[in-house]
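hi support,

uploading two proteins for the ticket. first:
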Amino acid sequence: MSSKAKSPMKGNPEMDIVKEISKKGFDAARIARYAIENPPCIDPLIKGIRAPKGSVRFAYEKVLRLISEQRPDLVYPYWNVFRELSVCDNSILKWGAILILSHLAVVDEDKRLDAVLEEYYAPIQGPMMITAGNIIRGSVTIAAAKPYLIRRITREILRVEEGQYESHGEPSPECRNVAIGHAIDALDQLFDR
């Protein structure tokens, strides 16, 4: 197989990434692999996720999240973008950014995450169970990268017990139970540490 056949996109990386992501049923994993092999492609992905409107931003988020899992060093320079998105009004972008920030912990030598932990964990008590769940899920990744934070992370996760979660604007005991389930799973993974 020639090197051209292996490459998922040919020509100008920026235009090809944008074109590929815009396709229905795009292959996020393939695009992420290509961007990892071609780091200049990260810039157009960041531009795409920061677009003022459009559902294609969710596609950019998905690709950037996959890159952050495999090569967090490539997206760490854009820390502030993900920090801003982690508190934005768009829930889908917020949830992705929360997970991306957790993946960046492994390369966070500047301790940027440490500096914003209080804000990062604030939504853990509600009202959105999915936001709390993503924070809890990311906590395991953060703890693995920053073991000196495990006690603090554990305390933050335990705050889920006091959480008040809503479904369709109404208090939801079921959402609370789901959030507590996420906490139990995370604490189980942290137990040996």
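and the second one:
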Amino acid sequence: MLNGKVALVTGASSGIGRAAALMLAEGRARVALTGRSAAELQQVAEHIGEAGGEAVSFIADLRSDADRERLVAETVGVFGGLDILVNCAGIIGSGTLESTSMADWRALLEINLDSVFRLMQLAVPHMRDGGSIVNVSSVTGTRAFPGVLAYCVSKAAVDQLTRCAALELAPKGIRVNAVNPGVVVSNLHRRSGMDEAKYAAFLEHSESTHPLGRVGVPEDIANMIVFLASDKSSWITGACHAVDGGRHQTCAR
């Protein structure tokens, strides 16, 4: 399905990024992994290698433009090209209009939006006709939720970036799409400072806010990412796909 294509996946050490990297490799893509944990990235790379795939891992700080440039350059240097970019890395933080500091605002946008924009910009010159970019957004990009203002804004911006870039890159044969997950079991909320008890309560409550009656797992999202990265979606571009158990159909509660 992806035989020989080169994929760069950010946030590949855990959660959705890890699941996407493993599925891309199962489809016979050659995968460049990046994240913040060398040990976790190495585990993913070893798993891919043991299954007969090809993977290389890079530690990178996506707030650093030098690291962004290095990441794309080293991926191309190792594999000789770049066909697929999957922007999975992201952070979340609590805050309202009145309580969000400029430092918190900028920190969140640097990862969730700036890095996505810049990596797309850096990747496109290496992509050929048939290239695919998949941005991991959120249900919060399409619906408003209280208490996570900067996160909602960052994901809404990713959706619009996806649509605008899709129009611009269509003449080159490069497709750009987004996936908008609901609540997915991952480290996203834990890394925002939510302890295990609060996280367990959050997941339990979230079962009632998703019409299908459960929260997601990383593989739910990775399946869509791989589809959008593959030629099976060759007539889809500029689309933001809800993979959220129906959450986007509901009112905030």
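thanks. also noticed: The first strand starts at residue 6 and ends at 9.
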